[in-house]
Design goal:
The structure is a single chain. Helix 10 packs across helix 12 and helix 12 packs parallel to helix 16. A five-stranded mixed sheet has the order 1-2-10-7-3, covered by helices on one side. Helix content is 46%, strand content 10%. The relative contact order is 0.19. By secondary structure, it is α+β, with helices and mostly antiparallel strands. The longest helix is centred in the middle third of the chain and has 32 residues. The C terminus is likely disordered. The N and C termini lie far apart (63 Å). The chain binds protoporphyrin IX containing FE. The site of protoporphyrin IX containing FE has 29 residues, from helix 4, helix 12 and helix 16.
Length: 426
């Protein structure tokens, strides 16, 4: 048995880690490939690209399950420490997993997601219109946060003017350290938001529409309807996945383009280059930094024996800096020939929202670079207190040359009306 390589310096939820998560990811690639942390009940850390791919693809030996005690092995899901809410399908294993994932795939397919581009551009324009005349904005609170939140509510079929309830709750939940009062408050806020979701589920059972909640309310798994708890768990995950990660991607990209203003015209002129830039921002900033599994059998990874029941961190952010996979990994290179980054995961749980996230990224960046071409960051950039799971930013204060409101340049999508009403009411 290889001796354990303990890493005392590593606490992914600490303030030290939040100050420079990239440095910790790079450091984790030095020395033995699989390391051990005593924190949060103890867990292995897998960092090399090839090992991360292998563990993520071996869903029989490495379980995502949560809250199913079984033969002495306790399953605590895909975060370290384990989360408070069971989410579906991310914390299910096959075969139950497939029955639920099948419900999401058609709604969030690449084709369906790309169709949403004009609508997402209209949401971005709506957000920009609210600040464009003033010449100053918080690029996170005013644009990078609302657009993914509004898009996710639209997908689910929730009232768009409720976006801030979900955006604030899920950002604060991801941003807070385990056991902190901030996390308890954010989880309580998210739970209140989920009550509104369940009200909508009841309404859509009676009067279905063409949205994800209506589909879930009518769907069958193994020939039976979903329970309320299952629908809640799916919606919770779609909201969490949809609201926070994409905001982090857009925010980091806007921060990078503050430091590299010469890149802006080229990205705006060339959608292929903008896409490649997004992939490089996904790699370097890795919005979802790490997730976890539980070993179901004794299994060896990178020369290290992992015992059944052990917790295993998949450090996507470290894999994204592995020089065996990426030339010159610390450098942002938009022209990378291949960029098979780990940021959307691998295997059966690979992100179902990846094309939607990429579409949101492209539309929001395009609208900002078109309408605020000279934006510059001013004041203090505020990072999340913990970036151990999500590498997010709370605030990006900016100024730019004021311009007139423009709107999307065509008839607005009907549901923007409800946003205007929400604004009038606030
Ligand atoms: C930049 C944006 C995003 C990043 C970095 C990201 C990252 C990830 C990762 C790493 C996984 C794999 C989980 C695992 O292996 O345990 C995942 C799964 C998932 N993501 Fe995303 N995600 C993003 C955007 C989205 C969006 C926009 C949505 C929905 C609106 C979404 C919904 C989901 C869901 C439902 C799963 C679970 C899939 C399953 O278990 O089969 N994500 N995401």
């Amino acid at each position: 048995v290889t001796p354990k390589c303990p890493v005392d310096w590593f606490d992914h939820h600490s303030a030290e880690h939040a100050a420079d998560p990239g440095a910790a990811a790079a450091q984790m690639l030095q020395g033995p490939p699989v390391k051990w942390s005593d924190r949060y009940g103890g867990f292995w850390i897998v960092s090399r690209y090839a090992d991360v791919v292998r563990v993520a693809r071996d869903d029989a030996s490495f379980s995502s399950r949560q809250d199913f005690p079984d033969e002495g092995v306790s399953f605590t899901g895909v975060t370290i420490p384990g989360g408070s809410a069971r989410t579906i399908p991310i914390s299910l294993d096959p075969p139950a997993f497939f029955a639920f994932r099948r419900l999401l795939n058609p709604v969030m397919s690449p084709q369906e997601s790309r169709k949403l581009a004009p609508m997402i551009a209209a949401y971005a324009d709506w957000c920009i219109d609210r600040v464009i005349e003033s010449g100053s904005a918080d690029l996170v609170a005013d644009i990078a946060s609302p657009v993914p939140a509004i898009t996710t509510l639209r997908l689910l079929g929730l009232p768009l003017d409720a976006w801030k309830i979900y955006a604030d709750a899920f950002h604060n939940s991801a941003a807070s350290r385990p056991g902190s009062p901030e996390l308890a408050q954010a989880d309580a806020d998210a739970a209140r938001g989920m009550d509104l979701v369940m009200d909508m589920v009841r309404r859509r059972r009676a009067e279905p529409k063409d949205d994800l909640i209506s589909k879930l309310a009518r769907a069958l798994v193994d020939g039976r309807p979903l329970t309320d708890d299952e629908i809640r768990s799916v919606c919770y995950l779609v909201l969490g996945g949809g609201v926070d990660t994409t905001t982090a991607l857009i925010a980091h990209s806007l921060q990078y383009l503050d430091e590299h203003r010469d890149l802006r015209p080229g990205l705006l002129a060339d959608p292929g280059k903008l896409h490649a830039f997004g992939e490089e921002m996904l790699r370097v900033h890795t919005p979802t930094q790490a997730l976890a599994r539980t070993a179901t059998i004794d299994v060896e990874v990178g020369g290290q024996l992992i015992r059944a029941g052990d917790r295993v961190m998949l450090f996507w952010a470290a894999a994204n800096r592995d020089p065996e996979e990426f030339d010159d990994p610390e450098t942002v290179r938009i022209e990378r020939h291949t960029n098979r980054h780990a940021s959307f995961g691998f295997g059966i749980h690979r992100c179902v929202g990846s094309t939607l996230a990429r579409t949101e990224f492209a539309e929001v960046l395009s609208r900002i670079l078109t309408r605020m071409p000279d934006y510059e960051l001013v004041g203090t950039v505020v990072r999340y207190d913990s970036v151990g799971t999500i590498n997010g930013l709370h605030r990006l204060p900016a100024r730019f040359t004021p311009r007139t409101r423009s709107g999307p340049g065509g008839p607005p999508p009907a549901d923007l009306t409800s946003l205007e009403e929400g604004k009038a009411a606030s």
